[in-house]
Design brief:
mainly alpha, 20 helices, transmembrane, DUF1576, DUF1576 domain-containing protein
Length: about 425
């Protein structure tokens, strides 16, 4: 079922890209490959809808085929990985720049004597650093030294990713985004020292809203309907996923079934799309990428109950800080800030709001550390928010227990 799902959504993106792209679609695809793509670079704006959707569909198809080649039994993490790649293939990843990172991770697996499947998902999510490939390899022609550097970056992702997980203990769903941010921070620092860093940019598409709205809503309604069909055209047992905190790795395909997972993917996609339109932001490469990621993790930890407090916390930040609620960084912070959903799921509604609020502030500043070369900037921010909050939550819990204990002793006496 999962293979059928992944192949189908890949072909939907490819067919839609060809349909809206016309005769210039290959030129658009080439332009995407050659253009700098660090945050925020909307492929819709620099190349066109056709090339962007074709790029996304091709990448989802390619990474699904890798599952087949390696004889992987895909689950919820597979859905999250492929849909995240597909989403970011609308603003940062392309059919060239992801592969050196993947190759670096595979090389690490071979060197330490592990099967490449061991760190397969690290390689998938590690494509967060794909803009570094474009910057170091294609910025001034094809640079082989730059290619070697990117391979080395991919090589060190697995050990760093394993360590990063111990820091936030699975409460930041975008663990490799946090890892990529740490790597990107050092890479950015080195590039800045030699005046080789990229300049800040914001390329943001605002047109074609009716077409994109129809496509995105239809896409996620079809996913919801597919899940409902598998579930006997009923929402029965859907609420069973609400009992899970969402902490890594909460794989709904394994814990429940494909039907429940697909229903959740569709519902989260519709929620994300509606939010973007309700606040008056455009549907474009970055926002659809955010919606795809939010929905993809509907198979791996996120559900309406644990994302709602984080949504609310980021919105409170957006409504009270200096950034308009429909500004690019705040809209993306709401969509991607749901990386902190496990905090709400584990520790409750209030802590989820606090996590979202803190994220809305931190994400404004943290991108400058890696110069936008880590596409999962919200995952980087989310990691630090989790690091900051977890000991505070533990301290508050200890204080509360101590007060209760003292109160009990006083009443006992």
């Amino acid at each position: 079922m999962v293979y059928r799902f992944l192949f189908t959504i890949s072909f939907i993106f490819i067919v839609f890209g060809i349909a809206v792209g016309g005769f210039n679609i290959i030129e658009e695809l080439i332009h995407i490959i050659k253009s700098p793509d660090y945050l925020i670079t909307d492929y819709f704006e620099i190349a066109g809808l056709g090339g962007a959707f074709l790029n996304s569909g091709f990448l989802m198809l390619a990474f699904t085929f890798i599952f087949k080649l390696l004889k992987i039994n895909p689950t919820g993490v597979s859905v999250a990985a492929v849909m995240t790649i597909g989403g970011f293939a609308l603003f940062g990843k392309n059919i060239f720049n992801v592969w050196p990172i993947v190759a670096g991770v595979f090389l690490y697996s071979i060197v330490i004597g592990e099967n490449v499947r061991t760190y397969l998902y690290v390689s998938y999510f590690g494509t967060a650093l794909a803009p570094i490939t474009t910057h170091l390899v294609l910025d001034k022609g094809f640079d082989y030294i730059g290619l070697i550097i990117v391979l080395i970056i991919g090589f060190f992702l697995p050990p760093l990713g394993s360590f990063a997980l111990t820091l936030h203990r699975g409460y930041n769903l975008y663990n490799i985004g946090f890892t990529a941010g740490l790597l990107g921070m050092f890479i950015g620092g080195i590039l800045r020292a030699y005046d080789l860093h990229p300049e800040p940019r914001l390329i943001w598409h605002t047109e074609n809203q009716l077409l994109l709205s129809i496509f995105v809503y239809t896409f996620f309604y079809l996913i919801l309907l597919y899940g409902l069909k598998l579930n006997g055209w009923t929402f029965a047992k859907y609420k069973s996923i609400f009992k899970y905190s969402g902490k890594l790795l909460t794989d709904f395909v394994l814990l429940e079934n494909e039907a429940i997972a697909f229903m959740n993917v569709g519902i989260l996609g519709l929620i994300g799309t509606s939010y973007v339109l309700l606040v008056g932001a455009p549907l474009n490469g970055p926002t659809i990428g955010g919606i795809m990621t939010l929905a993809g993790f509907g198979a791996l930890g996120k559900h309406p109950k644990n994302i709602a407090p984080v949504f609310l916390g980021v919105m409170i930040g957006a409504l009270t800080n200096s950034q308009p609620v429909n500004s690019p960084i705040m809209v993306l912070a709401v969509l991607f800030g749901t990386t902190l959903a496990p905090i709400a799921g584990e520790f409750g509604f209030i802590w989820g709001i606090i996590a979202g609020y803190l994220h809305s502030a931190l994400v404004l500043n943290i991108g400058s550390l890696h110069f936008g070369m880590n596409l999962y900037n919200n995952g980087f921010s989310g990691g630090f928010v989790a690091l900051f909050l977890l000991p505070l939550i533990e301290a508050v819990k200890n204080i509360k227990n101590r007060i209760v204990e003292k109160w009990g002793e006083r009443n006992g006496n």
